[in-house]
Write a structure and sequence with these properties.
By secondary structure, the chain is an all-alpha fold. The chain contains 17 helices and two strands.
Length: 460
């Protein structure tokens, strides 16, 4: 039955795309995020549906879409440079077979991020892409939120629709991404037009925010908790009553502690002392290995270079537990082939210093770009522009949350994040094109233009 539902939905989505080719773009975003071919048992799991829709989206844009007002962003050229550099390191990778496997989906994510901004010519398209991204991620977040609320979950135990660590279905990744999309959810609640704001939209958006906030609890991922704290701090910029907001957030956090599972609180306590946790201490050891590896391989070792690592880890003694008396003594153990568990060290180990520099430049310029848009349109008096600054703020806050979360999880090439970057680029080029066509800059602190009234001179 589930296969029939997936096939019917996809065929309907693709069929409508032949009338409105931009829907191919949205359909590919849905497929890339939800991966329905992996959720299917037999009907579409053997069809390269992702590659087919990928080709239809690009062909539809080339054949039908209006390209007169198409503009390129400087960040798209950064993506092209990163794509070419990754291709070069893949051709000289330490582990060619494994590197090719990762390259098979990385190039598609980068090419899509380069292509996607070219299609975002109107506000409606920008909003439609935002909506599809949110609803696609919501399919995973809601499932995780319901299972968590029902008492399920646990580190490595919460099943998010798919029982494998693929894409957003990995607990730490989804908890970080789920928190990073909360600003976009709140933006859509107020400024969406495809589904205009009403009580139903408000209810769904608040429920989705709650489901996303539950993901760190259900997955017991420390990354999600760190992201949630960062987002709460960032939100102080966008609220009017900051003191009340901070006090309310603090009281809510304190009130929630008694309802949290004991396993969750115990795992979060390891944030204070990473040496007492095997997983955290291993990550630090792998980061140290990667730093030394980059000194000898400044251009990186290609994708999956971590396979060759060998680390010796010293785990500090923890509090005495009658059920685990061995943990009361410090232990030394060796690990090999452990993943980076950090996007920054992932880039350093696989792409070297040049790749890390390109990646950081791509993200930093995006944050600066969104800050410029935010400040430029923050006080605009034009009704048709009042959605721009909040969207730039939401994208910036989500982006910062991702960058903090990526300190502890390897998502340097996560396709969903590159869609967010494409959304930033699309918003920037749309605003720049609109300003140039109109020949004016937005009204900010200036009062609205009112015709001067001259006193009437009576004739006598």
């Amino acid at each position: 039955m589930r296969d029939i539902a997936f096939v019917a939905f996809l065929f309907a989505f693709i069929g409508v795309g032949f009338r409105k080719p931009f829907l191919f773009v949205l359909c590919f975003c849905y497929i890339d995020i939800v991966a329905p071919q992996r959720l299917s048992y037999f009907l579409i799991n053997s069809i390269p549906i992702s590659l087919i829709v990928f080709g239809l989206a690009i062909a539809g844009w080339l054949a039908v879409d209006d390209k007169r007002d198409t503009r390129w962003s400087a960040r798209q050229f950064l993506l092209i440079a990163l794509l070419l550099y990754c291709w070069m390191t893949t051709s000289q990778a330490d582990f060619p077979v494994e590197a090719q496997e990762k390259w098979s989906w990385v190039w598609k994510a980068l090419v899509w991020a380069i292509f996607l901004p070219l299609t975002l010519r109107t506000k409606l398209r920008i909003e439609a892409l935002t909506l599809v991204m949110l609803l696609s991620a919501a399919a995973i977040a809601i499932a995780g939120g319901i299972k968590t609320a029902a008492g399920g979950g646990g580190y490595g135990q919460l099943q998010l629709l798919l029982n494998e660590n693929y894409g957003l279905y990995e607990g730490s990744i989804m908890s970080a991404v789920g928190i990073s999309i909360i600003p976009l959810i709140l933006w859509y609640r107020k400024h969406g037009t495809i589904f205009p704001p009403d009580w139903r939209v408000n209810l769904f958006c608040f429920a989705l925010v709650f489901a996303c906030a539950l993901l760190p609890v259900g997955t017991q991922a420390r990354t999600g908790l760190v992201c949630l704290v960062i987002l709460v701090i960032l939100s102080l910029r966008a609220v009017k009553h900051r003191f009340l907001y901070a006090a309310g957030a603090g009281l809510l956090a304190i009130a929630a502690i008694p309802f949290l599972p004991q396993s969750f609180t115990e795992r979060m306590e390891t944030i204070q002392n990473h040496k007492a946790d095997q997983s955290a201490s291993t990550r630090v050891a792998v980061w140290a290995w990667t730093w030394e590896y980059a000194k000898d391989h400044p251009f990186g070792g290609g994708f999956e270079a971590y396979i060759q690592n060998r680390v010796r880890v010293e785990k500090a003694a923890s509090a005495y537990d009658p059920n685990k008396p061995q943990e009361a003594e410090p232990t030394v153990y060796e690990e090999k082939g452990r993943a980076y568990h950090s996007s920054y060290f992932e880039m350093l180990g696989e792409q070297g210093y040049p790749g890390l520099a390109l990646w950081l430049l791509l993200h930093l310029t995006g944050l600066i770009q969104m800050e410029r848009l935010r400040r430029r349109y923050l006080k605009t008096r034009r009704a048709e522009e009042q959605w721009i600054a909040p969207l730039a703020t939401a994208l910036q806050h989500g982006h910062i949350t991702y960058l903090i979360g990526s300190l502890f999880v390897g998502i340097a090439f996560q396709p969903f994040i590159y869609m967010m970057l494409a959304l930033q680029m699309g918003l920037s080029t749309y605003v720049r094109r609109r300003e140039r066509e109109a020949g004016w800059r937005p009204l900010t602190a200036r009062p609205a233009q009112v015709p001067t009234r001259h006193p009437v001179v009576s004739s006598s």
